[in-house]
Amino acid sequence: MNIIIQSLSQIIMPFNLMLITLGTLFGMVCGALPGLSSSMAIILCLPFTYSMDPVSGVLLLVSVYVGGATGGSISAILLKTPGTPEAVATTFDGYPMSQRGDAGLALGLAVSASSFGTIFSAICMVISAPLLAVLALKFQSAEYFALGLVGLSCITSIGSKNQMKAILSVLLGLMFSTIGIDSINGIERFAFKQPFLLNGINYISVMIGAFAIAEVYRNVEELSHRDTSTVTNSKVSLVIMKFSEMLKMWKTFIKSAIIGTVIGIIPAAGGSIASLISYGEAVRSSDTPEEFGKGIPEGIIAPESANNAAVGGSMVPTMVLGIPGSPVAAVIMAAFMILGLRPGPLLIRDQPILLNAIFFGMLIAALLLFVGGRFVTREFARILKLPYPLLGTLIATLGVVGAYSLKNSFYDVAIMFIFGFIGYYFEKFKYSSSAFILGLILGELVENSLRKQIIIGNGSWSGFVERPLSLFILMVAAITFLSPIISKYKKNKKAKTEKSTH
Amino acid sequence: MEIVFNSIVALFILLYMFFAMQLGASNTEGDIFGAGGFPLVIAVLGIVVLIVITRDILKNKKKIDIPMFNLKTAGGKAVTLNVMAVSLYVVLLNFVGFIIATPIFLITSAKSMGYKEHRALAIYTILVSAVLVFVFGKIFFIPLPRGISVFRDLSYLIY
Amino acid sequence: MKKILALVFIFVMVFTMVGCAPKAEAPAPAPAKESAQASAPEQAAPEAKKVDFPKRPIEMVIPFGTGGASDIFARGYAQIVEKYLGKPLTAVNKGGAGTIEGLTYAYGAPADGYTVLEITPSLLIVEAQGKSSIKFRSEFEPIMRVQSDVVSIGVSVNSQFQNIDELIEYAKANPKKLKIGGLSPGGLDDYIANGFALAAGIEWTYVPYKSGSELKAAVLGGELDVYQDKLISFLPLVESGDVRPLVVLNDKKLDSVEVLKDVPSSVEKGIDFTQGSWRGFVIKKGVPEEVKKIIIEAFEEAYKDQAYKEMEAREMTNVREGYLNSEDFGKAWDKEFDSYVEIFKLMGVIK
Q1: What CA–CA distance (Å, rounded) separates A108 from A128?
Q2: Hey, is the C-beta of C31 within 8 angstroms of any chain B C-beta?
Q3: Nearest to residue A332, comparing CAs of A68, A17, A32, A25?
Q4: Chains sharing 3 or more CB pairs under 8 A with chain C
Q5: Residue A186: closest CA among chain B residues belongs to which residue?
Q6: Does C251 touch chain B (CB under 8 A)?
Q7: N or C terminus of chain C: which is more exposed, having fewer CB within 10 Å?
């Protein structure tokens, strides 16, 4: 307890508070702009930390990380352009809600959920980091495969309107995920000697294309029947949800935060998988699954709470074992080393103040988001008041610049362009772009861990069912996959019997 | 119409399967799937699902309206124009660089969607270009496209 | 109309403010830079006057994604070189396709000295495997090799193997049974695992992982039998008691590293294999001699800088001398290239 008070007094200094505020804001801008990643934001802040004392440096980097995980939702909600891969699930309900006119509500919910997820995972981290870190080691190839299946099986919930087409979309996504160098034996697959395909298809450019650009095409098509100069989205409400109303959805908040924290802890899966699984779970367990995708609050809370909880989760193995729980955490760990700190069991024992610094950094950043962030962020919704020709042009420009910035390459712009068309046709024929991206994101994890487990088991499959944790997760996957199908079947049957009795 | 789409998807999956079969066996001990195993599994599943979907379509025919590239409709025209504007932008980026191509695109695209307020458009164009160059080029050090010869030298003055 | 303008204006202001913010935070490092610049012109100025180079920032192409060891190194080194060149070096990450994208990008830039490429053994491996149409060794010229890493091999503390002899004995009796991890299939780790096995007369199975974290988790979680890694990643796990070090791939024991000083070296054990990673810089062939000279001098000066010595100590890359000047670096390529070709042929990666 003493040490907590001691470190708190060291942290709550005007300079540090300013750093946290600036770090969070910088992270949010970086997260909101497609093509700029949190790792990049952290690396750009790194040189400034050289001259600070380690605690201040850590506070800055951690707040950038928290801000980055939050910022992605802004562009996801307003422009249907996920700024970060973690925000992909936020577009599912966030964008419809802002189109309905409740952009302020959507942004407020996203920021509140983000801040809750951060606080939840920070508390988990500080209370039981050494215990939780063990989880990172329990997850081996068999468990990763099972987890990947849980992610894929969300498809029956996410694409419940047309399950067959959603499944085909996932399969197509999986197919695209196999393009590039095979991760087990280094053979080129489906790359046709093109260097830009060797590293696979970047799913951020696919996301920008299939969501944002396709949406621009759709809007352009629709607006062509009207005189667009005068068309402005006049009903942009900036009202945010009351605290008491949010409390009613505590179940979604907590369940998503737990999912996010756990998935954040394990190294090979991070915020994007956490938010997709959390969204799928929210749909599956909801009483009104058909309302998802039309802009309901739970559809924003679930992914945002989970992807920010993954931030705290990913810091757990980083601090305790020196094994970063996510690529961004790996950058933070590299930064720690530059600051002269070496994460690992010794660090927590010798410098407990550092763990507390991370904890308070996250906590203060989250509180800032909750208290002030909701009101600042909702002002961004005003951008929707731009006449569509200007807004649509802005989205297209941001898409091109964002895709280019991923690797400073036009190939990603071309991929974005192609998926703009694919996303457009998918929508017309009732296929699911979200499902496609789910397959694209999870494809590598599933294939890679499947084959690794079989290699480890010398060609045998038994590892998947012999390992208790793997078996358990496989069962979760089966339930996730089947329960929406069964409930739909039951509903259809009920409808039929009702019809026949009438 | 949807049958055409399904045929394209089928063709894609079959091609994918064809290339997957060319991938040789793995020389890693115990890797029973090899590079082509997983792709084959998903391709077969894809074909099965596609057949189910196609059977459904054939049973209850529905007409879907696809205006894109259909130049007879206003929507089709607008989308085609927009696609062309973005393509032009990407091509221009390679030749005249970011600082010149972006304003050109912003104006063409907004106009092609029917925007008429000239003054607002001018201010919007300058602001958006400036902010993008500043944020991406100056803060994040993204080497935005510079174009060739004179344009390349020009860009070095700015970012 | 006015409203729209106001909106756009607010939008711009927010971005500008936020964007400026981190810049304003950093007044502190500036004095260090000034003092260094004051000393720098003494060495660089006479040459610089003749050809007036550099006139603008130089691009440092990093053929890896952001955040890895090679990225952090190149960015750190670029900051030191900046003191001696007088213009900043801006980092351009062109990660992907096992360095091929970075190579292609640097090859496509004009040979005017404004593009410097960071290299590691991966670029030689790409050429050895013929994965790119660009012949690296004949298209680029060395600036210098800055540092080299030592790779160590160990096992989890729960493992039955107490020392390297037991491990090799078991591997000889059970060929291909042991699993050793690494990053990237067909890359440097694959080469080291197989090259070591060849030199020791054993066979084991190499399993590639996507990231260092997954690799470590697989070792500690018991999925992998053998762990290989560079010092900076290897050491913390030894210090925390999770990994038992068995052998360091070096000519002699690493006396300067406390926890590894009793660990035998590969050469002592009769296994003649000491390959590790290294990092250096190249420029495209055809850069004018004067310009090349200025660049090489600035990079050499940076190597002698105290700031680099500190960086090196932090990264633990000072355990084995990695420095090679431009000429020796170029010669070292050919020798290494031949052994890549030899081992990859044996592995069946090259036909």
Answers
A1: 30
A2: no
A3: A68
A4: A, B
A5: B35
A6: no
A7: C
Q: Which residue has the tokens 């935070």?
A: C25
Q: How far apart are CA A113 and CA A306, in angstroms?
A: 8
Cβ neighbours of C46 (radius 10 Å): 9
- Say how far apart CA C71 and CA A482 lie, in whole Å: 45
Question: b/e for C179-217, b at 16 or more Cβ within 10 A?
Answer: bbbbbbbbbbbbbbbbbbbbbbebbbbbbbbbbbbbbbb
For chain C, positions 122-181, list CB contacts with chain A under 8 A: 132, 177, 179
Tell whether the torsion through CA atoms of C129, C133, C137 and C142 is positive or negative: negative
> Using only C-alpha atoms, what is the Rg of chain A?
22
For residue A489, which phi and psi values (nearest 5 degrees)?
A: -60, -45
Of A75, A173, A84, whose CA–CA distance to A441 is shortest?
A173
Residues 4-33, chain B: which have Cβ within 8 Å of C? 27-30
Determine the Cα angle at A317 with ends A313 and A322, to 5°: 145
Distance spanning both ends of chain A, measured CA to CA: 69
Query: Residue A101 burial (CB < 10 Å; 0-12/13-18/19+)?
Result: middle
Tokens 């802009």 correspond to: A295
**Residue range C228-286, pLDDT digits in tens:** 999 888 888 898 889 999 999 999 998 888 889 899 999 999 999 999 999 999 999 98
Contacts of B29 in chain C (CB under 8 A): 176, 205
What are A280's two structure tokens?
């799928």
Angle, helices C2-24 vs A14-32, to 10°: value is 130
Which residues, in sequence order, are CB contacts of A250 under 8 Å at separation 6+? none
What is this model's ipTM?
Answer: 0.92
Q: Is B125 on the interface with A (CB under 8 A)?
A: no
The DSSP-derived string for A178-198 is T-EE-TTT--EES-TT-HHHH
Helix or strand or coil: residue C67? coil
Q: Chain A: residue nearest B80 by CA?
A: A217
Pairing of strands C58-62, C115-119: parallel
CB within 8 Å: A224 and B144: no
**Cβ-based contacts of B42 with chain A (< 8 Å):** 171, 174-175, 178
How confident is the model over A225-234, as pLDDT tens digits? 665 444 455 5
Cα nearest neighbour of B129 on chain C: C12
Highest mean pLDDT among A37-46, A159-168, A277-286: A277-286
Q: Do A454 and B135 touch (CB under 8 A)?
A: no
